[in-house]
Amino acid sequence: MPNTTVPCQYRTGKTLGSGTYAIVKEAIHIKTGKYYACKVINKKLMEGREHMVRNEIAVLKRISSGNPNVVTLHDYFETSHNLYLCFDLCTGGELFDRICAKGNYYEADAAALVRTILTAVSYIHAAGIVHRDLKPENLLFRTPAEDADIMIADFGLSRIMEEEKLSLLTEICGTPGYMAPEIFLKTGHSKPVDVWAMGVVTYFLLAGYTPFDRDTPKAEMEAIIAGDYKFEPEEYWANVSPTARDFVRACLTIDPERRPTAQGALEHKWLAASTPHFVPDPDSGSPTDLLPHVKKAFNAKLTWKKAAFSIKALNRMASLAGSHPLGKEAAELSENVRQYKEESAQEVMEDASIMHSHNLQHPSESSSGNGGVSPKDVTERFAKTRLEE
């Protein structure tokens, strides 16, 4: 039976960024004028990866609109070329950029951020979801306003973990510096990996660098598995209270069974006490400003990382240019991904016909007539509607 098509409800805005397999564009809803961030995935890149998108949609449908600090999936639809996922457009920038732009920054500010993010993590966990990629780059502010909500974004690596099944995940995934020991050890992992990541994020918020920073990925992995980190250099940590350090230690407990839950971490005195913890400034007696040291460490690391990435990129290009067959395959895959992403970027939404619409906010506008079909259906249809090479 042929697919019915409907006009697209959105028009294309500017390109906001690019991920491994997708690009992110602004999408403006034609009727309401509202702006969204739209993840655009070329269907040619979906082959063999349908489960990844099916999973992301299932996760987001479960938690969207349930917490002000979790990004919402508002809509998803297909054209003959692409899949589009429409999210909240967060215009307030990344967490650390926001901190560095402030005039001052105190331990109480860090505690307030951690409390808010952990409350959202606790909500996600209660919904049976493990995020698996909590890091500052995935913590965005909704608007540039001073009191804007901070949002947990990017649920591409998240999984639904049904408690009664007691299942554990074993694949290695995430961002290395934020990954828990059990991920590297492949002993099985679940929600405790998010609490470990929050320990790393907290350390980063207090010092401007991460606890397991090492010169090589192997050394970093070994440090994580051994729980080998210190509150050093002392000049950076002298201004941080013992209570805050104790909170970091609790989250960075090597044994996931002994690590606090997200809810348990919220009950730690650093977050739960009615009066904020701080180290008094020796001159004024008021809380010490952490910003000078945090910015200094962050900027130094950024400069080093840029240099390191340049070297890595050169080495990678050299290896891809080599005659080794794997190098050729990798080069071809890389070129295909680039080409397909460019193709997907060229589609103009307002000129495209929508084959399957699954509007989550306005069920009456959905082509399925019942608020959309299941994520399983959407990816089963991919198999039928993929374009030939």
Automatic annotation (TrEMBL):
Which molecular function terms from Gene Ontology are attached?
ATP binding; protein serine/threonine kinase activity
Compositional bias (Basic and acidic residues): 377-389
**Which residue intervals define the domain Protein kinase in the entry?**
10-271
Q: From start to end residue, where is composition biased (Polar residues)?
A: 356-368
Amino acids binding ATP: 39
SMART domains tied to this protein: S_TKc
**InterPro entries per the record?**
Kinase-like_dom_sf, Prot_kinase_dom, Protein_kinase_ATP_BS, Ser/Thr_kinase_AS
**SUPFAM superfamilies referenced in this protein's UniProt entry, alphabetically:** Protein kinase-like (PK-like)
Enumerate the Pfam families for this protein: Pkinase
Region annotated Disordered, chain positions: 346-389
Q: Does the keyword Manganese apply?
A: no
Q: Which UniProt keywords apply?
A: ATP-binding, Kinase, Nucleotide-binding, Serine/threonine-protein kinase, Transferase
Entry superkingdom: Eukaryota
Signal peptide range in chain numbering:
none
Family, per the entry? Belongs to the protein kinase superfamily.
Its name, as the record gives it, is Pkinase-domain-containing protein
In its UniProt entry, the species of origin is given as: Mycena metata
Traced from the root, the source organism's taxonomic lineage reads: Eukaryota, Fungi, Dikarya, Basidiomycota, Agaricomycotina
